[in-house]
From TrEMBL:
Coiled coil: none annotated. It is a multi-pass membrane protein. One of its GO terms (molecular function) is purine nucleoside transmembrane transporter activity. This is Probable purine permease. GO terms for cellular component: membrane. The chain crosses the membrane at residues 38-60, 66-87, 108-126, 132-153, 165-182, 197-222, 234-255, 275-297, 304-325, 331-349.
Length: 372
């Protein structure tokens, strides 16, 4: 643990060493079940994220108008995480905790959950506005810039090094998003004015920046506040920040008066009342299953890997949107997808090099001890 913290302080941002304490004594032959779980979590992330995004747009397309409802769908299903935490604790064998560092106080935990919950509610609301005013394909491509924002905020909060691969990723993801703001064809696909299109673009960029800020902040919190990098601490943070964010959005829903329009919205929904309920319920479930997959990837690998898999799923949405909503896939969007994928690969490759470097550094002391 001390060795991984030393490497962390030197700027090698491998969250696998900080969030999960792996048992290195387990033989390689027993890792098949871990890879199976890893594959399941990847599948959940890659399928549920596009489904949830498409269902959110489907709600808007058929008469839904409440941005607070779409925001709440991303958060309100957090009780699923409680069940996941319960069963994951049963599955994992109890280990003897040899780390006697003081745990954060109740007041500190409340502050952490409140701050992160407010940030989560803010970027969830911004993403709901972006999804309202933008074609779902454009929305998802802009949201892929979260990788660039994660690297940007990690530079200030976690001493992230700006290597050539990270700089290349930042540049490509920025250009990829910039291409979409000048895409005038997108106005016709959503029947919104140019002004609303720009508002949607700005809000989506804000949501992407919020995601990057929260991920970098959580990385800082686990190093400076929580200190004990256990699966239960990660899960507790996900649950309580979702609880706080849900309460904030519910307050906004009732304070804005949008809740009064929901009955008439259900009656006038183009696909019918049953479809209205099914759309909202399916979106809420999809978001939480996606969250389960995301947290599962953190357990089994690292938050860097989970964030990367999230970025992989984003280019899937434009392809589905062309089929479902008949979004126009013009040259600028195709080029934007190519740049986004290129930027993603550059980002992942840099963290692969970081992880390889940490593994090499962690095995060298062992080899030296055996030689002596």
């Amino acid at each position: 643990m001390d060795r991984s913290q030393e490497l962390y302080a030197n700027g090698d941002q491998n969250l696998e060493a900080n969030l999960i304490d792996h048992d290195e004594s387990v033989p390689q032959t027993t890792n098949y079940t871990r890879w199976l779980r890893l594959s399941i979590y990847v599948f959940l992330v890659l399928t549920c994220q596009p489904i949830a995004t498409i269902l959110g747009r489907l709600y808007y397309e058929n008469g839904g108008k409440s941005t607070y409802v779409v925001t709440l769908l991303q958060l309100i299903g957090f009780p699923v995480l409680i069940l996941f935490r319960f069963f994951s604790q049963i599955r994992q064998p109890k280990s003897i905790d040899t780390d006697f560092r003081q745990s954060p106080s109740f007041t500190t935990l409340v502050k952490v959950y409140m701050c992160t919950g407010l940030l989560v509610s803010a970027y969830a609301y911004l993403s709901a506005i972006g999804l309202l005013f933008l074609p779902v394909s454009t929305f998802s491509l802009i949201l892929a810039s979260q990788l660039a924002f994660t690297a940007f905020f990690s530079y200030f909060l976690n001493s992230q090094k700006f290597t050539p691969f990270i700089v290349n990723s930042l540049f490509l993801l920025t250009v990829s998003s910039a291409l979409l703001v000048v895409n005038t064809e997108s106005e016709n696909t959503t029947n919104v004015s140019r002004a609303k299109y720009v508002i949607g673009f700005i809000c989506t960029i804000g949501a992407s920046a919020g995601i990057g800020l929260v991920l970098s902040l959580i990385q800082l919190l686990f190093r400076e506040v929580f200190r004990k990098h256990t699966s239960s601490a990660v899960m507790d943070l996900a649950i309580y920040q979702s609880l706080v964010a849900s309460c904030v959005v519910l307050i906004g829903l009732f304070a804005s008066g949008e809740w009064k329009t929901l009955p008439s919205e259900m009656r006038n929904y183009k696909l019918g009342k049953v479809s209205y309920v099914l759309t909202l319920a399916s979106a809420a479930i999809s978001w939480q299953v996606y969250t389960v997959g995301l947290v599962g990837l953190i357990f089994e690998s690292s938050s860097v890997f989970s964030n990367s898999i999230t970025a992989v799923g984003l280019p899937i949405v434009p392809v589905v949107a062309v089929i479902v909503f008949h979004d126009k896939m013009d040259a600028s969007k195709i080029f934007s997808i190519i740049l986004a994928i290129w930027g993603f690969l550059s980002f992942v490759y840099q963290h692969y090099l970081d992880e390889k470097k940490i593994k090499t550094c962690s095995t060298n002391p062992v080899e030296e001890d055996t030689q002596t």
